[in-house]
Amino acid sequence: MTDQIFSSIPTAQLIVEYCKRYSILDVVISPGSRNAPLTIGFSNDKTIQTYSVVDERCAAFFALGIAQKKGKPVAVICTSGSAVANYYPAVTEAYYSNIPLVVISADRPKHLIDIGDGQTIQQENFFQNHVCSSANLKDDTYQDASKSPLSFNSEKLKTTLAKCLENSLPIHINAAFDEPLYHTENAILPEVKAELEAVQIRHLESLDDQEEFVNNWNSAKRKLVLIGVNHSAHIDEEILDMLANDPSVIVMTEVTSNAAHKDFFQSIDSILAPIEKSENKDELFKKLQPDMLITMGGMLVSKKIKKYLREYQPKQHYHIGENKALDTFFCSPKHLKIKINSFFKNVLKDLEIVNSDYFKFWNPLKLETDQLLENYVKEIEYSDFKVFSQLFAHFPEHENVHFANSSTVRYANLFDARKKINAFSNRGTSGIDGSTSTSIGYAVASQQPTTLITGDLSFFYDSNALWNQYIPSDFKIIVINNSGGGIFRILPGDKENQYFQKYFETRHQLTAEHLSKMYNFNYAKVDNMKDLENTLPQFFSQKDNPQLLEIMTPTEVNDKVLLDFFNYLLPVFDGEF
Q1: Span(s) in the chain for CATH 3.40.50.1220
Q2: 3-class DSSP state for residue 276?
Q3: Cα dihedral sign, 351-357-360-365
Q4: Phi and psi torsions of 454, nearest 5°
Q5: How far apart are CA 137 and CA 174, in angstroms?
Q6: Is the pTM of the predicted complex or chain greater than 0.90?
Q7: Which UniProt keywords are listed (predicted)?
Q8: How many CB atoms lie within 10 A of CB 72?
């Protein structure tokens, strides 16, 4: 005998059992009635870790954070109606970030849809443009001479779950349940047992074009390696050293690449932005133009590198990695669909060092910009820019740091991320809507100290994320509050018009103090450099309760300080070379 409780609805039992067979062992549930059969099944299974998060949008981003850290599929479960629509932002983020999010929505039977019942919308294929597969499961009233509803649902589940794992992309399972919804059993039903089969999971790898890659590598005098978002895919030190020690290679990274070496170019815009203003622009850009472009990881933040490579295109572009190869630079990349470490271990012995002055020319310029950054920080007034320099100086080693979108992650990419922080961000769709929820999910999954760096609008937008009973005691939030959407002051536009402040910048006078009290966060606020320098060491050392530090910065200074930085670097690229 077992003390486990099962839903009495066969399809609900089938969903739980197939999730277990596909190693989907983390499940985030939002309350509802139509999804009661799933809630009963998952929450009573001791092999599955379940979480209860009320707000569906927050729940989906929370699950995304867990999947982001573990690199494994995580399921979210909701009731019917508008609940499923609240998952959409996280589904799109998962789709463009290659994160295996499993959306399981409960639905009414087909004969009860669009007849006036509450909490009812058209849910079949709801996410069809942003998932790799949809399974629209049938309720017990489904009639087909060739197969039972359970057999139909079993085939759909196997196909869809397999695609999720094979492609590391989100899927949608829409399950129609008729009442009664709350009846239970004390064992798996015989007809469910009969449907369960051994699961076979394929991981696709392609070694096509490997020989061609080696030949092109060994003949290219200018090779540019770009490493984008790389949350959990560790790149071996041997590979990083090989790339750094080849004179024909320049490696450009961003903070979320988590690939560190002293000879990598960690601030792409500090090179490209001043060149755009330089009187030597065309000559410099041609000297930087690669014969061969190699991309690894996911999305890139820098718009400047995208613009540059679309105009000064490489002769060949290879993307290495299991996830999809995007044609970001309009030069038809060849996709080497294999893990980065596996690929380079296959070819390392065949790669030759090519005589070149590519790195030799650009590295001194990069070192000059690094030094000028240090000088600039000492000279500028209190601002967002100066705040970020202090944050990077004080991050503890091995801290998980989530950078929210808009200006936050862009500032982060100006500073040296070689210190061993683990940086991540939602860069699939680059929205501000789920940064806090994602960072909390990541913190829960990692069980390591985690800090969210966020702007004020992003924080307030996702403030329901704090309505979460699983927030670890060592979780920390830094809100950089410049009283509006500071990024819009950096972008082109007339900043003096009243409509700009109201509809773009969205000025406000809110602070996070009362939210912190409501959700039991320790709260502190600073508005000057001296207090910030004194506060940060203690802030990062406390681990007995969640912390929130609000840093107030001047609204009308920040954009000027940032834009002047690139002018400050201009003499490096305007001299003789």
Answers
A1: 210-356
A2: helix
A3: negative
A4: -140, 155
A5: 6
A6: yes
A7: Magnesium, Manganese, Menaquinone biosynthesis, Metal-binding, Thiamine pyrophosphate, Transferase
A8: 18
Which CATH number, 1.10.3720.10, 3.50.50.60, 3.80.30.20, 3.40.50.1220, labels domain 210-356? 3.40.50.1220
Specify the 3-state DSSP secondary structure of 113. Answer: coil
Residue segments in the chain with a per-residue pLDDT below the cut of 50: 1
Taking only the tens place, the pLDDT of each residue in 429-461 is 988 899 999 999 999 999 999 999 999 999 999
Domain at 382-556: CATH code: 3.40.50.970
3-state helix/strand/coil string of 296-360: ECCCCCCHHHHHHHHHCCCCEEEEECCCCCCCCCCCCCEEECCCHHHHHHHHHHHCCCCCCCHHH
- For residue 449, the SS3 value is coil
CB burial of residue 206 (10 Å; 0-12, 13-18, 19+)? exposed
- Report the SS3 class of residue 379: helix
Let me know how long the chain is. 577
Distance between CA atoms of residues 342 and 303, nearest Å? 30
**Among candidates 148, 147, 230, which has minimal Cα distance to 189?**
148
Residue 180: cis peptide before it, omega within 30 degrees of 0:
yes
Question: 490, 414 in Cβ contact below 8 A?
Answer: no
> Could you tell me how far CA 548 lies from the centroid of its own chain?
22
Q: Selecting from 3.60.40.10, 1.10.3380.10, 3.40.50.970, 3.20.20.20, what CATH number does the domain 6-195 have? A: 3.40.50.970
Other C-beta atoms closer than 10 Å to the C-beta of 542 total 13
Q: Which two tokens stand for residue 430?
A: 């680059």
Q: Residue 65 corresponds to which amino acid?
A: G
For CA atoms 332, 337, 341, 343, give the dihedral sign.
negative
According to the model, what pLDDT value does residue 245 have? Answer: 96
